[in-house]
Amino acid sequence: MRINRLWQKMAIGFVAVAVASIIVLFALVNFVVDTQFQGYIGERERASYRRIGQSIATFYLKNGGWDGRLMESLPHVSTLSGVAIEVVDANGAVVAEAVDTKRQDTFIENIAKAVGSGQFIKDRFANRVEVPMLDGDRKVGSVYITPLVKPGELEEDMAFRKSLNNSLLFGGVLAALVALTLSFIISARLTSPLAQITKAARKMEEGNLGYRVNIKEKDEIGKLGDAFNNMSMALQAHERLRKNMTADVAHELRTPLATIRSHLEAYLDGVMEPDEKNLQSIHEETLRLGRLVDDLSELAQVESGKLNLNKKKIDLVLLTKQTISSMEPMIEQKELTFDLKSNGQIIGDFDEDRIKQVLVNLIANATKFTPTGGRVTVEISSEKDKALVSITDTGTGIDSESLPYIFDRFYRVDKSRNRATGGSGIGLTIAREITKLHGGSINVTSKMGVGSTFTICLPRNSGKKRKSTKPT
Q1: How far apart are CA 107 and CA 102, in angstroms?
Q2: Which residues lie across from 147 on neighbouring strands?
Q3: What are the beta bridge partners of residue 456?
Q4: Cβ-based neighbour number of residue 435 at 10 Å
Q5: What percentage of the chain exceeds 70 in pLDDT?
Q6: Where are the domains of the chain?
Q7: What topology is assigned to 6-166 in CATH?
C-alpha cells in the first residue's frame, strides 16, 4: 500500500522512533537488571557459604572436634542450600559429606548430555569453594562447598527473571500501542491546518479567491495560514483592480471613439458641417486617446524594466515653481489658493522630466479633488542628504479602506467614470515607480472631509543612473 498522506507518514515516523526507543530502553533495562541480578546472586551465594562455614565451625567448637554427629545435620544444610558439602580435617581426611540428591541427579544428567554431544566438560569441582576452619591461628580443617546449580538457575531465580521479562515485554507492547495511538492523533492534528490550506488552494484554483482558512495556531503553520489569507486577499484585490481597469479602459476608449464616430457620421450624412468648432472637438478626443495610450505605454515600460533615468544637477524648488506655473489655468479655473513654501535652493541629482511628471500628477490630483475656493500647499524642504516635497490639499480626502491601495495600478478612489475626477488609475503607480527609481519613496496621509498630504522623499545625491526593475 502506497502512503500518500502527510499525517500517515508523520505517524509512521513517530511510531518508528517510539519503537526504536522502546527496544533500546528494553535492552538497556534488561542489561542493567541482569547485571544487578547476577551481582545479587553472587552476594547471596557468598552469604550462604559464610553461613554454612559458620554453622560447621560452631559445631566443631561446641563439640571440641570432629565426630560422626556432624552427618546428622549436614544433609539438611545441603538440601536447603542446593550445594554439595565436604568437610575434611587438618590432615585432609573426609570427616563428613552431604549432597542434595535431587539436584545431584540433575547435575549428573546434564553432564551425561554434555558428554553425549561431545562438549568439553569442566571439572565438576571447578566452582568448588574452600572455607578454612580455624581454631585461633591453627587450621583444624576445611569445608568444600560445590554448587550443583549454575548461579541464577534456581527455580525461584528463573521464575523471578521470567516474571521480570514478561513485565518488561508487556510494558514495551503497551508503550508501543500508546505511542501508535498518540502518533496518529498528533499527526492528524498537526497536519489538519495543512489540509485546510490545501483545500483553500484548490478553491482558489477554481476561481474562488475569497476563500479563507481559519487556523488558530500561533506557530509556523499558523503564520503560513496568515500568509495564505494575506495572499488570497491580495489576489482578490488585484483581480478586482484588473476587472475595474478593464472596464475603465474600455470606457475611456469607448467615449472618445463614440464622439469621433458620431461626428464623422454626421459629416458624411451632411447633418453637421466640418467647421473649426466641430473639428476641435474631434481633436480633443484624439488627444484624450493619446494620453491614455501614453499612460499605458509608460506603465508597461516601468513594469518591464526598460525605463531609464537621465539625472543631472537641478534645483528642485525652481522645478516645482515652473510646474505650478504651467498648471495655472487649471488652478485659476477652480479659484484655488496655492501656497509654495521653501527655504532657498535645494540642489540634487534628479531626472528633470520624470520628477516634473510626478509633480504634475500629484498637483493635478490635489487640484482635481479640492473643491472650488479650497487651498493647496506645496512645501519643499531638505533633511540631511534628502529632499522632501509635501503637497497638501483641503479636498475630500481618502477613506481608510482605499488608502492601502492608493498606489496600486488601476486603482481609483473615485469609482465613477466622471471625466473630471475619473482617471485611469495609472498616474500614482507611475509616480511611485519613478520615485523608487530615484532611490526615494512616496507616502500619503489622509482624513475624510479634511484633505490629503502626499510626501515625496528623494536622495539629493543618488549616484549613478539607475534602471527600473520589474515591480513585484
Answers
A1: 9
A2: 83
A3: 389, 442
A4: 21
A5: 84
A6: 6-166, 209-304, 308-459
A7: Beta-Lactamase (3.30.450)
Say yes or no to pLDDT of 123 above 60: no
- Range with the lowest mean pLDDT among 48-57, 228-237, 322-331, 403-412? 403-412
| Under 8 Å between Cβ of 391 and 401 | no
Q: What is the pLDDT of residue 113?
A: 47
At which residue does the C-alpha cell 482558512 appear? 213
CATH architecture of 209-304: Orthogonal Bundle (1.10)
Within 13 Å, how many C-alpha atoms sit on residue 283's CB side? 7
CATH of domain 308-459: 3.30.565.10
- Provide the residue count of the chain: 472
Give the torsion through C-alpha atoms of 405, 411, 417, 419, to 10 deg.
90
Tens digit of each residue's pLDDT (9 = 90 or more) over 357-402: 999 999 999 998 899 989 999 999 998 889 999 999 999 899 888 8
Return the DSSP state at 321.
Answer: H
DSSP string, 54-121: HHHHHHHHHHTS--TTHHHHHHHHHHHHTEEEEEEETTS-EEEEE--HHHHHHHHHHHHHHHHTT---
Residue 186 CB neighbours (<10 A): 14
pLDDT category at 417 given cuts 50, 70, 90 is: very low
76 has pLDDT over 90: no
Give the span between the Cα atoms of 459 and 436, in whole angstroms. 10
Judging by beta carbons within 10 Å of its beta carbon (0-12, 13-18, 19+), is residue 367 exposed, middle or buried? buried
**Contact (CB, 8 A) for 426 and 296:** yes
Judging by DSSP bridges, how do beta strands 451-459 and 441-447 pair with one another? Answer: antiparallel
For the beta sheet containing 129-135, the strands, ordered from the edge strand earlier in sequence to the opposite edge, are 94-98, 83-89, 138-147, 129-135
Q: Is the pTM of this model over 0.90?
A: no
Q: What is the 3-state secondary structure (H, E, C) of 135-150?
A: ECCEEEEEEEEEECCC
Amino acid at 171: G
Torsion of CA 113, 115, 118, 124, to 10 degrees: 110
SS3 392: strand
Residue burial 46-72, b: 16+ Cβ < 10 Å; e: rest: eebbeebbeebbebbeeeeebeeebee
Distance CA 195, CA 15 (A): 22
Q: Which residue has the cell 509556523?
A: 220
